[in-house]
Design brief:
single chain, 170 residues, Diphtheria Toxin Repressor, domain 2, 2 domains
Length: 170
Amino acid sequence: MHDDDESLELPSKSQRKRDMHALFDLGASMLELSSGQLDKLPLEDSLREAVDTCKNIKQHGARKRQLKLISKLMRDADAEGIRNGIESFKAPQREALAELHAVENWRDRLVSDGDPVLTELIAEYPHADRQQLRQILRNARQEKSPERSKKAKRELFQVIRSLISDAPPQ
């Protein structure tokens, strides 16, 4: 009889709390989704209604109580399916942000270090127009007026962004 009790071991109180906090956070992330995105998630009617209600609540205390209700309702829901659905919505945003950071990094390195970085950029993106990049880079580095320098840096940013987005997948 004692051996059966060990095989049916329940999660610790701390683990149950971590699980509830995870459901609470998942419920909070559902509030950031549009109505169309929520329609694509595997939500029961009561859970969807609770999420819609919570979106309309402005008071902090009431909103927190509603979030607790959402996390309670999620105990019986497909939390993994909901989490995967939310991740699929956020993946394109993360990719776009990563591309933006890459473009900014290239631009900053080009302006600060010049030709060695330009050679590196052209080696990575062989379809780049070397002459155009040199001209824009020269304008960005030589301008004394901060306003004109900003314009050249914006133009350099646009050219690098089109280079990266037009690049064939590696």
